[in-house]
Structures are given as structure tokens and as C-alpha cells.
């Protein structure tokens, strides 16, 4: 995966931080061409197929993880605020998306 691809993802504002208040919990989302991916740089986790098939079997981080790490380092991401009451609903939606994404292969 080339550096320039990661640069362009960060530059285009595709990295978003969902911030839940008042708890301050956050989730990172990377908007891809067809899907949004839930990426957790602390856990080293992503919902994309690359992560599932490559990173998990000892390969390098997927480009979402790399993009989130770069965006966080350079403070170049969009923050979207939500209420804590939406957190569980949000996780559920992400889980459903990921299940259908992986199931479609
Ligand atoms: Zn990914």
C-alpha cells in the first residue's frame, strides 16, 4: 500500500472521529469508496476485508489503520459529536455492516 494513497485519504477528510458525549468515548471511521470502515488504532482493529484476510494472518496493517494513525498524529480528521445514548445503536449498525460485508465475499 503506497504512502500516497494514505496521504490522499487523510487529505480528503475521509478519516472521521465519532465522539460520544458526555463520556468522551470515541470511534474512528474511514470512509472508503463503497463502505465505511470502523477502525480502532488502539486495539489495532478494522472491519475491512484486508484486515480480516491480511492483517489478522500476520500481514501489515490495512490502509485504514495506517490512515487513522497518520490522521491522529497530524491532527487531520473530522470530529462528529454524538450523544452517549446513540453509542450502542452505532456499534450495532457497524457490526451489522461488517457482517454483511464479510458475508458477501
Ligand atoms: Zn481496514
Please describe what this structure looks like:
With 105 residues, this protein is α+β, with helices and mostly antiparallel strands. It has one domain. Helices cover 43% and strands 26% of the residues. The protein has helices at 3-11, 49-55, 63-74, 87-103; strands at residues 15-21, 25-31, 36-40, 45-46, 78-83. Strands 4-3-2-1-5 form a 5-stranded mixed sheet. It is globular and about 35 Å long. The model has no long low-confidence stretch (mean pLDDT 90). Bound molecules: zinc ion. Residues 37, 39, 46, 48, 50-51, 62, 64-65 line the site of zinc ion.
Assign a percent range to the helix content. 40-55%
Strand order of the largest sheet: 4-3-2-1-5
* Rg over C-alpha atoms, rounded to the nearest angstrom: 14 Å
> Given the structure, what is the number of helices?
4
Number of strands: 5
For the largest beta-sheet, the strand count, sense and barrel status come to: 5 strands, mixed
- Write the H/E string, N to C: HEEEEHHEH
Mean pLDDT, to the nearest integer, reads 90
Total number of domains: 1
In terms of DSSP E residues, the strand content is: 25-35%
- Overall structural class, as computed from helix and strand content, comes to alpha+beta
| CA-based shape | globular
The hetero compounds bound to this protein are:
zinc ion
Contiguous uncertain segments of 5+ residues: none
Distance between the termini: 21 Å
Amino acid at each position: 500500500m503506497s504512502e500516497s494513497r494514505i496521504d490522499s485519504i487523510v487529505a480528503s477528510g475521509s478519516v472521521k472521529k465519532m465522539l460520544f458525549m458526555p463520556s468522551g468515548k470515541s470511534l474512528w471511521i474511514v470512509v472508503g469508496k463503497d463502505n465505511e470502515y470502523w477502525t480502532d488504532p488502539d486495539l489495532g482493529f478494522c472491519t475491512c476485508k484486508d484486515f480480516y484476510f491480511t492483517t489478522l494472518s500476520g500481514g501489515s496493517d490495512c490502509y485504514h489503520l495506517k490512515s487513522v494513525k497518520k490522521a491522529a498524529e497530524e491532527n487531520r480528521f473530522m470530529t462528529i459529536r454524538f450523544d452517549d445514548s446513540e453509542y450502542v445503536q452505532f456499534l450495532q449498525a457497524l457490526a451489522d455492516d461488517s457482517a454483511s460485508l464479510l458475508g458477501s465475499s
